[in-house]
Prior knowledge:
The protein is an all-alpha fold and 93 residues long. Helix content is 71%, strand content 0%.
Amino acid sequence: MAGDYVDEYITMFEVLARRANMKLDDPANLRMFAQGLHRGLAERCIDIESPDTFAQWMHTAQRQQNIGCESSLFNMTAMETRYLILWKRISQN
């Protein structure tokens, strides 16, 4: 996972949800948000903090992303790993 993955996902989800006039705190929309996260990250959010609102999900996902960033490297697909390596190279320039 790239370091900015969660922030980018949150922003995109929020923009699209508002365009669709979706209520962010609706349980169905919270499930949709959680399903868009990497599985391990969503599971950590639920297991550790059990968020109930969009704001809680947003902060929990950001916090868990920061905490689990290094350990999540072991759960990444080959494509995600390549993306992360490329992202880090671009970010350093």
